[in-house]
Design goal:
single chain; alpha+beta; five-stranded mixed sheet; five-stranded antiparallel sheet; 24 helices; 14% strand; hydrolase
Amino acid sequence: MLAAAVVVPAVGGAGIATRTAASTLIDLPPAPREEPLSQLTTLLDKNGKRFAQFYEANRTTVPLSRVAPVMRRAIVAIEDARFYEHAGLDFKGTLRAIIANTQAGGIKQGGSSLTQQLVKNILVENAESEKEREAARAPNIARKITELRLALAMEEKYRKDDILERYLNIAYFGAGAYGVEAAARRFFSTSADELTLAQAATLAGAVRLPYSTDPSLGRAHRARLRERRDTVLDRMAGLGMISQATATATKRAPLAIRLRPEPGGCAESAYPYFCLYVQRELLSNPVFGGTRAERQRRMARGGLVLKTTLDPVAQRAAERAIAARVSAEDTEVAAEAMVEPGSGRIRALAASKKFGRNAGDRDNGPHTTFNLAADVRHGGGMGFQAGSTFKVFTLATALKQGWRFDQGFKTPGMFVPSEGYKNCAGKPVNAPTTKIYNASGEGKGGPHSLSTGTWKSVNIFYMMLERRVGLCNVVETARSLGVARADGAPLREVPTFTLGVNEMDPLTVAGAFAAFAARGRYCRPVAIVEIVDREGLRTRVPPSCEQALERDVADAVNHILSGVFSQGTMKGQSIGRPAAGKTGTNNGYTSAWFAGYTPDLAAAVSVGDIRGSYRYPLRGVEIGGQSYGQVQGASLPGPIWVASMEAALRDTRPTSFVHPDMSRFGGGHTPGLAEALAAEKRAEQRQASHRRHFRKLRDSYRQYYRWLSRRHRPDH
């Protein structure tokens, strides 16, 4: 009553009756709403090892039982010595502060109880805008009255120890540490339950002035922190909590700060691109909240432990394979994604550039903020045209429609898609002014079957095959396997769809190819398999899969794509186990790809110029210290894929593909193909004969020169 009589007139003027003043502190509002405190979100790899963390506030909440008793006494001593005696209002301290503040016309002296400070922190924590945060901190008496009324309400709702626990978990101690557990780790590399007297006094002293006593900011700040520590020790001695001798001895001790880094954010993660993908997935996937605002709040509050699909063995394999062939300083960039068939679990996301900003925020340099292995929705760029990797969707469509391995037709040396192409809206999309050549270096014209046309990646064959099986049917096959543009725009349904004119990201392509490895079962790529919330509740995130292709059709695709290694564009390159894949080289060499898989792992590698693939094609370039006249799918992406897959699968037993149903897909006829293959074989034999003859001739000359050199030696 007396406090109200003193406080309220200072706000409303002497005309307010004492009865009204009293009601201010008797008719209390409900205790303030308490949102869950912001905490760390931790990312674990598939083995349960932490590889990243991000947070809005570096905080780990702990129960009061896990806070050292000396820490509890220290904070009470310096912040509210009569905490266990009053009911939320320290009358003596408040009266003293009110008189000083009324005379000054504003807040000059602090007199808040520990409960009042808790209320202030709760209001700041709950604020959803900067304006609300400023109001919660406003240095005026009206705000103090509101704070006091809410404090009294909290005292009615909670026990004293509950209030102290809440305060110790919400308070900011400086150096980016919120709550006593994070502060103990940050300041002293210890935990809250193991704090010593000196450490507890230091943290208790930091709460009042966390910015001017931040030990991470230098010597002057540490000197002020030591002064505050000594003040707390004297206060504890004055209250009889410790002896004066103990206080004096402890004050002689050095501050002994042992700052422990608390890295946060993906830039400081060992695997930043995977971390960024997870972060963006939390914001964009409705599984983690009905609206983006809800997902944003959940991520900001944190306190989650996310078990991810990251395989550190596969991740390191991809990183090393790329780094061995592409330099971070190159403007040409390589990126790779690895996906587990049958589950969609993302095992690796890697790129040739380091994650982060370049010095001076330059556009070009060894760093990038784009997640080059992923799409725009997950922090990636616009992607690169996928090239001939898209021919697999036409191949799968043809096999669905009953085509056989040796079935095909003759192809000309040039082709114009002037008729026969309709998009999925039924609209003709012919391109009568476009001329298609087999200019990619991956094949020639002539008679080709499904098999030879794929192995040699013949553009004209696939343009003609796409027209026969239907452009829309090919597009629908691709869509069923998760194909979507990296920039989020609709797929371009044009005659050159089969040649890969759509810009893609490696993860989407790897996910699609993984479906062939899983015998037609497409699984949406997933990075999170389990979420543990702050209460310890575990939520499994199941794979999202569907049978996109018949198993027999997928087996047939695998059979043909296996031949790419034995008879096609990747001949001579192998990972020592059954594998299938497809090179992708764009016309004009604007980008290059390789996508391939085993039954256990799928991966896609892209290479292009980060400055713009059309303006800077991959011709006459030096990448990773090696010169290339032109970069093809088999010349750089292919070797990266081979090296990364060998290392990623080194501890995995080889698995074979299911043999295709030859009664359904075997056989077929292509006019003139047998003769063309025979002629090709004869030409290869002649070339082999010429090579043998050359080697013999070379060896003869070498022997002759060795004989001459011996004849002219002095001892002869």
